[in-house]
Amino acid sequence: MKQLGFSYLIWVLLCFISSESIAQPVQTLSVNPVLNGGITMNSAGELFVATSGTNGVLNGGAIYKIDLATGQATQYIGGLQPWPIEMDFDNRGNLFVTDWGLGGVYKFDQDLQRGTFVNGINGANGLEIDTLTQTFYVMSFLQHRVYKVDSSGSKTAFVTGGTISFPAGIAFNGQTKDLYIANWFDNRITKVFADGSQELFVTLPLPFGTGMPACMILGEYLYVSAYGAHKIFRIELESGNISTFAGSGVRGTVDGELLQAEFISPGPMVSSPNGDRIYVTQDSLATTTGGGRGAVRVILLETATSVGEDLFGDVPIKFQVNANYPNPFNPTTTISFELLADEHVKISIYNALGQIIKTLLDENLNGGGHRLQWDGTNYDGFKVTSGVYYYRIEAGKNSSVKPMLLVQ
């Protein structure tokens, strides 16, 4: 894969730090029969969609790259077994793809050289990566199980059964290390703790068999697509409160306000690197009633108006946080801020998935101006890859998040 040009990386960063206005919260990026499967985005903001097949036939075996300006889909990877379901990038730029026909996970390096990362997982569908530890969680629909896979591809059964039954959606909380597993048929969502224990988190108030093909964590919420209800739900991670986030429930491809827009069987979702929007595919299983109507929809999040807002919560900014300098940077950058009074301050670095990779500071500071440097390393002291990262400063009840661009 060609390295990203420096000018392009600067353009990506400028897109992230500028305010943006989109007339309608829900828009259609592309309508294409093949755009109906798994979806992912790399740290540079490039979008990729897998195909399940078209016109009611589950024979898809390709991944497409989507031009965000035009919506044009260009085949990126072909020749896979039917059908690739979920995809994710690790922090080294490798792409991992679960494949039902393979019964496992493919790995594509940055040169798109393909290998089988792990197999022997019957009905492999969901995938989440803890990029900090290079731990993979691979879900099996048919075995009612989640496997834990290390970086070498060695797998162990992590959690099986309980309230997990025909799981179709999986989400990983990088801060707490918890997993959330959404069942396809009975609408139950199970919370799996880091030790493998589990508890029922919520049950969505939907008819049996509605189908929940995907879930995703962003900030304080779990987003869940409801295939047969043609809606997307949002659930508070702390309280478990459920609300309809997008979709009127009427089947269609109509843009507009969140609760007036129409979807056809929304499926897998991914957020943009700076968390200001969600991309979702629809008609994710290429059903006979919706086959040939694959599309990628874009949802602008209500809280995303500019960086400087807290992307991880709703706490207003009451202290001064400056843009890091230099930005873009290599190998170090300086972060500066001013406190109104003596406060306990915590400064954390997050990757594009919202996962914490390093804590720079966690101590009491006096009021006034402060600055410190980040050298582009993680908790283990290893250099992280090029891409967009975020620093979050928490001072008492105040917090702020800002982006920065590392170019190795």
Describe the structure in your own words.
This protein has 408 residues and is mainly beta. It has 2 domains: 21-300, TolB, C-terminal domain (Neuraminidase); 320-406, Immunoglobulin-like, CATH 2.60.40.4070. Helices cover 3% and strands 44% of the residues. A 4-stranded antiparallel sheet has the order 1-24-23-22, with no helix packed on it. It has a 4-stranded antiparallel sheet with strand order 2-3-4-5, with no helix packed on it. Strands 6-7-8-9 form a 4-stranded antiparallel sheet, with no helix packed on it.
Total number of helices: 1
Radius of gyration, whole Å:
21 Å
Shape: globular
Low-pLDDT parts are: 1-23, 303-318
State the CATH topology of the largest domain: Neuraminidase
Cα(first) to Cα(last) distance is: 16 Å
Question: Which strands sit side by side, in order, in the main sheet?
Answer: 1-24-23-22
Query: What does the main sheet amount to?
Result: 4 strands, antiparallel
The named CATH superfamily of the largest domain: TolB, C-terminal domain
How helical, in percent, are the residues? under 10%
Question: How much of the sequence is in beta strands?
Answer: 35-45%
Total domain count: 2
Tell me which CATH architecture of the largest domain applies here: 6 Propeller
CATH C-level of the largest domain: Mainly Beta
